Every structure is written in C-alpha cells, then in structure tokens.
C-alpha cells in the first residue's frame, strides 16, 4: 500500500517504520531488493538517503 502511494505521488522510495524503535527501512520503487536502513552504514540519516538519488531537473 505505501509503495503504491509513493509511486502514485511520483516518489522513488519510501521509508517503512515498524514503530518498534528499529531503524526505518528503505523501500525502493524500482524493484531492487534492499535491506538498507536509515541510521545504517549506507544512509546514516535521511539527508544521506535523499542525496543518493539524482535530481531529475539536472
């Protein structure tokens, strides 16, 4: 449901938060499987996640 809403609004990924205090999980909409989390080694924070995706206006 959340990935559909994200795709419908033009997003490229969404964050899934289980609400149990664990790091948010990244869900890419291009079908690539991922086990990345925000506050993890690849994305230490949300800013790093946003910076990983190219700006479509460039």
SS strand fraction: 5-15%
Number of strands: 2
- In N-to-C order, the SSE pattern is HEEH
What structural category do the secondary elements indicate?
alpha+beta
- Helix fraction bin: 10-25%
What is the terminal separation in angstroms? 30 Å
Major sheet description = 2 strands, antiparallel
Strand order of the largest sheet: 1-2
Low-confidence stretches: none
DSSP helical segment count: 2
Could you provide a short overview of the structure?
By secondary structure, the chain is of the alpha+beta class. Helices cover 22% and strands 14% of the residues.
Please describe the topology of this protein:
Layout: H1 2-8, E1 13-16, E2 25-28, H2 46-51
Antiparallel strand pairs: 1-2
3D structure, described in words:
Helices cover 22% and strands 14% of the residues. The protein is an alpha+beta fold and 58 residues long. The chain has a two-stranded antiparallel ribbon. The longest helix has 7 residues, at 2-8. It is globular, with a radius of gyration of 12 Å. The chain starts with a helix and ends in a 7-residue tail after the last helix.
Main attributes?
58 residues, alpha+beta, 2 helices, two-stranded antiparallel sheet, single chain, globular
């Amino acid at each position: 449901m959340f990935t559909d809403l994200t795709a419908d609004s033009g997003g490229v990924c969404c964050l899934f938060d289980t609400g149990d205090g664990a790091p948010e999980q990244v869900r890419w909409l291009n079908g690539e499987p991922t086990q990345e989390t925000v506050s993890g080694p690849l994305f230490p924070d949300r800013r790093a996640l946003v910076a990983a995706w190219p700006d479509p206006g460039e």
